[in-house]
Amino acid sequence: MRKTVPLLLLLVLTSLAADYDGGGRPGAVLRLGWGVRSMGMGRTGVALVDDAEAVGYNPAGLAFTLRLQGQLFHRHLCLDRSQSSAGFVYPLPFEDTRATAAAAWYYLRVGGFDGRDTGGNRTGEFSYDEHIFNFAFGVRPLEWLGIGMTARAMFTGVASDTAEGGAVDLGVGFRPWAGLAVGFCAHNLIGSYKWKTAAGTEEALPVEYAAGIGYDAGGWLRFEVDLVTNGDTRPEWRLGAEYWVAPTLAVRLGYETGNFDTGELSAGGSIVTGLFSGGELRLDYAFRTDPLNAGPSHAVALTLLF
Fold first, then answer.
1. Residue ranges per structural domain of the chain
2. pLDDT tens, position by position, 247-267
């Protein structure tokens, strides 16, 4: 049965590639996108992000977060894949400097693999499971400048084999004047996986660079353009817009050029309702097409803000 593990890994990586051309490389799960609001805007989020999604897109955005919040996220993908996450954001009570801390748990599952022994006999069904624990921090040394870091620990299991790893993201954000936002982030600046097998294979995570520029027209209209590259694939452009039809209702639209011949379209929206003590409950939804026509994905998130 041990000989089936490499094949299982190949199938998993292939299934991840159905959502992103980087799926065949280590750390592909990190490039799937973790957040509904950004996903509905074409996975943009380097410049304007200022909520729990900043943990994965640009931790510098946490420096501009002013509200305590908790978020639950789930996304269903084709090929028996699913993503889930839970996150918490806490603005720190410093007097002279604005700073925010955040923690988030990411979980990816790919199921439906048949285990076979060397004789071809079925031994059971296996899944690929990945848990990622993120800890992020953002600080504003100047009113217009944000700096952030995300450190993560990753634990992977497939069949009877496991792997452990870690990575660090560093980001910076600029808000030079009202409405304009510019952001840069280096993902997996330090990162690797090590499999707990006889071979003890260790894989370095490819560094990914992202830059974005966005504009917020007083909160009712936001749009952003991002450029993402890792040096191994052609650069990817991401475009997104968000329009608040009413204070409690938003719609979003996005497009990604992708690394395939066709790009991906996305759309989504939000419904917000007030709660006691000035809190708000926001329900987000996003739809995203698949570059290989394997089936679209649907994502929902529930965010509590105070």
1. 4-305
2. 999 999 999 987 556 688 999
Calpha distance 214→228 (Å, rounded): 15
3-state DSSP helix/strand/coil percent for the chain, to nearest 5? 10, 55, 30
Comparing CA positions, the residue from 149, 136, 154 lying closest to residue 193 is: 154
Rounded distance, CA 215 to CA 193, Å?
37
Long-range CB contacts for residues 90-94, cutoff 8 Å, separation at least 24: 91/65, 91/66, 91/67
What are the tens digits of pLDDT across the range 40-53? Answer: 999 999 999 999 99
Tokens of residue 25, six digits: 């490389």
Q: Which CATH number fits domain 4-305: 3.90.550.10, 2.40.160.60, 3.40.50.2300, 3.40.50.300?
A: 2.40.160.60
Residue 209, classified by CB atoms within 10 Å of its CB into exposed (0-12), middle (13-18) or buried (19+), is middle
Structure tokens given for 20: 């992103």
Helices (H) and strands (E) counted in the chain, each on its own, are 3, 15
Give residue 213's Cα distance to chain centre.
18
